[in-house]
């Protein structure tokens, strides 16, 4: 269980991945983006999540360079994730996409590279590319995103290396219990995207009651619930006060009863696309 912001989970290949990080989905290139990354690093975040399709890898790279300089830390102290987009899924094209992401970010390597979506008929070739890059020592860890159990089973039939991470939509309205237990069984770390359901859970009555009890915000209760469930979390904010608020989740513990109350909010409801039915 994570005890502080920089605590890590050990992936099945031994790599240490921070339990907590910042996401930058929908943040466009420009000063707001650079500042968000820099501010997160300043406040002790050590993990940054981006993707080729976000179109913001250059600014993320700039934020990283400025952030580590100001914080007096080095690149190796950070955990940087990006993802290969659907149009680039294929052996050669995924390798080329990786080079493009590295160039945009201005980095020598990524800590984690993910297949963004499980496009049927394409993800296995992309996975072989990730395995090659991993075996060449060019990526520290490789994984997938938006993979359901059946996608993972299918991938692992032919894979040499099991994914280390599966990043999926995960919040109190989508608790993903079966997927999580499948991942646990196979040593795949589950990671939550849209942990705050993109802000749509913040006025939930039950969460508000629980938050009042601990003198915490609803966002903090949700993020704490992620961690107590053993799920890596990457809330997005570009606002300094929320970047600070979101990381303040290591000074309280939800009781078993409150954990169950939050689990009980599940509606299998998604804010994002359904991995079994998407057309992009
Ligand atoms: N793999 C995938 O397919 C996938 C898909 C979606 C997202 N992701 C990753 O997951 C990250 C997080 O998901 P997300 O960005 O979709 O949504 P999220 O983190 O659930 O929610 C972000 C929204 O909540 C607001 N917010 C953040 N902290 C808050 C707080 N303490 N109080 C009130 N509002 C708060 C943010 O606004 P402000 O910025 O104004 O604070 C923003 O509007 C993404 O940035 C991305 O890196 C991955």
Description:
The chain is of the alpha/beta class and 280 residues long. The chain is built from ten helices and ten strands. The longest helix is centred in the first third of the chain and has 15 residues, at 57-71. Strand 6 (110-115), helix 4 (123-135) and strand 7 (139-145) form a beta-alpha-beta unit. 40% of the residues lie in helices and 15% in strands. Helix 1 packs parallel to helix 2 (57-71), helix 2 (57-71) packs across helix 3 and helix 3 packs across helix 4 (123-135). It has a single domain, classed as TIM Barrel (Alpha-Beta Barrel), CATH 3.20.20.100. It has helices spanning 31-42, 57-71, 91-105, 123-135, 149-158, 177-185, 205-214, 218-228, 240-247, 256-263; strands at 8-10, 16-18, 22-23, 47-49, 79-84, 110-115, 139-145, 165-169, 189-193, 232-233.
């Amino acid at each position: 269980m994570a005890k502080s912001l920089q605590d890590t989970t050990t992936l099945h290949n031994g790599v240490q991945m921070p339990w907590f990080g910042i996401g930058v989905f929908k943040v466009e290139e420009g000063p707001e983006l650079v500042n968000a990354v820099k501010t997160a690093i300043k406040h002790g975040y050590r993990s940054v999540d981006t993707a080729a399709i976000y179109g913001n890898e250059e600014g993320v790279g700039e934020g990283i360079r400025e952030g580590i300089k100001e914080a007096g830390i080095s690149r190796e102290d950070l955990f940087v994730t990006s993802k290969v987009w659907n149009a680039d899924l294929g052996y050669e094209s995924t390798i080329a996409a990786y080079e493009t992401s590295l160039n945009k970010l201005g980095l020598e390597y990524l800590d984690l590279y993910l297949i963004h979506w499980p496009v049927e008929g394409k993800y296995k070739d992309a996975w072989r590319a990730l395995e090659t890059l991993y075996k060449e020592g060019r990526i520290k860890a490789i994984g997938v995103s938006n993979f359901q159990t059946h996608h993972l089973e299918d991938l692992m039939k032919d894979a040499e290396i099991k994914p280390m991470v599966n990043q999926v939509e995960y919040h109190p309205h989508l608790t993903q219990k079966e997927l999580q237990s499948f991942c646990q069984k196979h040593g795949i770390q589950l990671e939550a995207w849209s942990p705050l359901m993109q802000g749509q859970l913040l006025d939930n009555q039950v969460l508000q009651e629980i938050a009042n009890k601990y003198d915490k915000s609803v966002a903090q209760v949700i993020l704490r619930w992620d961690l107590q469930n053993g799920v890596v979390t990457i809330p997005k904010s570009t606002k300094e006060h929320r970047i600070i608020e979101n990381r303040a989740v290591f000074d309280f513990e939800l009781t078993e009863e409150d954990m169950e109350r939050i689990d009980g909010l599940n509606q299998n409801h998604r804010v994002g696309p359904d991995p079994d039915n998407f057309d992009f």
